[in-house]
Specification:
This protein has about 170 residues and is α+β, with helices and mostly antiparallel strands. It is about 45% helix and about 15% strand. Belongs to the Pal lipoprotein family.
Length: about 170
Amino acid sequence: MALPAPLNTALRAAAMLFFVVVVAACSRSSNDAVGLTGAGNLGPGGGAPGSQQEFIVTVGDRVFFETDSSSLTSEAMATLDKQAAWLNQYQNYRILIEGHADERGTREYNIALGARRASVVVNYLTSKGVNGGRITSQSFGKERPVAICNDISCWSQNRRAVTVVQ
C-alpha cells in the first residue's frame, strides 16, 4: 500500500531530521576534554572532584551495623577512614550523619538506636581529624528504610548510618 505523497514526504523529512540529530549527538570536536570517565573534567564516577557524587561513588556514604548494635565493624571503619580523608581534603562542606534502624522493635527503641549509630560515626570521624563543628547528626530510626521486606536481606540494608554532604 502506497502512502499519500504529502505523508510520504513528511515521513522522509522526519527520518532525515532524526538522522541529523543522532549524528550530531554522536560527534565531538577535538577540543572536548574527555578523560577516561567520558565526562569531561569530571572525576571518577562522573562527579566533579569534591562533589557529593564523587564522595558517594569513590568513598561510600554509608556504613552498616549488626542487629541491635551501634559498634563499628572493621569494614565500617575502613569506609569511615576514607570518608575522613575525603572530608579533611574538602573542608568547605558541612555534613549530616543520619542514623537508621531496621523495622523490628518499637519506634522509640529504633530512634535511640539510630541516634547511637550516628553518634558513633560522628565520634569516629572527629577522632580522624574532621572538625566536629562541620557535623550534625539525626536519627530516623526505622522511618526511612531503603529496603522493605520481612527478611534479613532487607533488615541488613536498613541498619546503617549515612553521611550526607551538604
